[in-house]
Design a protein that fits this description.
By secondary structure, the protein is an alpha/beta fold. It contains eight helices and four strands. The chain is globular, with a radius of gyration of 18 Å.
Length: 218
């Protein structure tokens, strides 16, 4: 991984952000509903006992709290739990932490959550999987795939939001869904799914837990 050398990386990036030392520029981050599914084949965990041991190895004294939020009682539960756990720990929680840290600088942060499961074979297997939103943002829905009209409409909306953000630092303008800025007081995000709607409290209990675990580890 990247090495903190005191020059290119003067300190742990997470520590810099939490100290308010990030650049004062508008920030956008987000996650997909099924970030973990793309990686399940690389995880040699198939049974509840192996899942519980993995969680205990990763989280130590906090394993009971993690298992309560992400339980797996049967083999069929294991991939679902791993998907949710990966989605939150590796994507949603870090994105929220960075967005909240932007409260230390004048620029605003905007958080999104992508939940659309289109009628294409990969999504039928993997859900709203890691990287799926990129085709919507850049308007590159693959020709020949069975996209619905809802997907093309969503792609146009997302592309417009990203262009507006890149142009002005704010993804809001007339004709686009209102996208509230995110901070700890509001904990808001914009969901890009079958509907585009502002929501609050995404994985709140789990994100709070992983924020605490990360802070203790630092």
């Amino acid at each position: 991984g990247p090495i903190i050398d005191g020059w290119v990386l003067p300190d742990d990036p997470a520590a810099l952000w939490l100290a308010g030392k990030q650049h004062n520029v508008p920030f956008m981050a987000g996650s997909n509903a099924d970030e973990g599914t793309l990686f399940l084949g690389d995880l040699p965990v198939r049974r509840p006992v192996g899942y519980a041991l993995t969680v205990r190895t990763m989280f130590g004294k906090d394993a009971p709290a993690v298992l309560k939020l992400f339980p797996a009682a049967t083999p069929a539960d294991v991939p679902k739990a791993l998907n949710r756990l990966t989605t939150v720990t590796a994507f949603a929680a870090p994105a929220r932490a960075l967005a909240w840290a932007m409260a230390k600088v004048p620029s605003k942060a905007y958080l999104y959550h992508f939940t659309r499961v289109p009628p294409i074979p990969a999504a039928q297997r993997l859900g709203a999987f890691h990287g799926l939103e990129i085709a919507y943002v850049f308007g590159t829905l693959r020709a020949g795939a069975p996209w619905a009209e809802a997907d093309r409409t969503l792609a146009a909306t997302m592309s417009a939001c990203w262009v507006q953000f890149a142009t002005t630092g704010d993804p809001n303008r007339d004709g686009l869904p209102p996208w509230p800025a995110c901070d700890a007081a509001t904990d808001q995000h914009l969901e890009f799914g079958t509907r585009v709607v502002a929501k609050a409290g995404l994985y709140r209990e789990a994100c709070d837990l992983f924020d605490r675990i990360a802070a203790e580890r630092r």
